[in-house]
Fold this sequence. Notes:
Elements: E1 2-9, H1 15-27, E2 30-37, E3 46-49, E4 57-60, H2 66-84, E5 87-91, H3 98-107, E6 111-115, H4 130-138, E7 143-146, E8 155-159, H5 164-176, E9 184-190, H6 201-211, E10 215-220, H7 224-232, E11 238-242, H8 258-265, E12 270-272
Parallel strand pairs: 1-2, 1-6, 2-5, 6-7, 8-9, 8-11, 9-10, 11-12
Antiparallel strand pairs: 3-4, 7-12
Amino acid sequence: MKKILLAFDGPHFSDAAFEFARKMNESQPILLTGIFLPQANVANLWSYSGGGISGPVYIPLVENDDAKVIAKNISRFELKCRNSGIDYRVHKDFTDFALPELKKETVFADLLIIGSGSFYENIGSGQPNEYLEDALHGVECPVIVVPEKFEYPTRNILAYDGSKSSVYAIKQFAYLFPEMVKNTSLLVYANEEAEQKIPDELFIEELAARHYPDLSIMKLAINPRKHFASWLGEKEASILISGSFGRSMISRLIKKSFIASVIKEHKIPVFITHR
């Protein structure tokens, strides 16, 4: 049995994120822990405390009505879990230091699920917004970002760029989802230079084919940051497996990642992990 975290911010309940967890439970029973973060006030977005080497600590400013809103969402979560036969827990003591506490939770979990369309949707003008970026940047377990409208995946898209991070993500997905690796899988290397070969192709094929029995490998002669999201948008009922959002990346550079473009397009679920 896996321990899965499902994160909600105060007023935004992601039915899509819950549905993904429900489908997981159908394949193999899970322990689903609901994480209920306080609502951020748009008028007074953040207060700052501390600083130093790690930078400022973000403290969401909690509204007085937050407790009532979160209580309703907790009741909704509990009812849906009971109706779906899901073993569940509720963690709601996040009135301060919401992101650091969420990241601590991920140390003790196998997977975090976030609904990309609702997770602090009122912060920032686009997706992924800064709050979502920060959450993805520092978690200690793999993450699945789920769009609000999606088909449960029947195909895996393995994003491979030759990096250790991308290889690690391919392995971690296989370990966490033994039932999904049986689906049709496509390992994709995207590089606009026609003469550029797939890095270490023999090695990655030997590894990936052991975990994904129905595997194809292809190279896309495109710039991944410009065109990969559009190409991926045509792949219905798929999930993208990626090693982006690693600890070593500067947070603001995440906006330039092709994975950020995929999340922004709200097309398919994205599995993200890093070493």
